[in-house]
Amino acid sequence: MVIATLALIGLIVALYLWLWKLGLMGPLVCGTGECEVVQHSPWAVIVGLPVAFYGVVGYLALLVGSLVGLQPKWADRREPTALLVVLSAIGFAFTV
Question: Global pTM?
Answer without folding.
Answer: 0.85
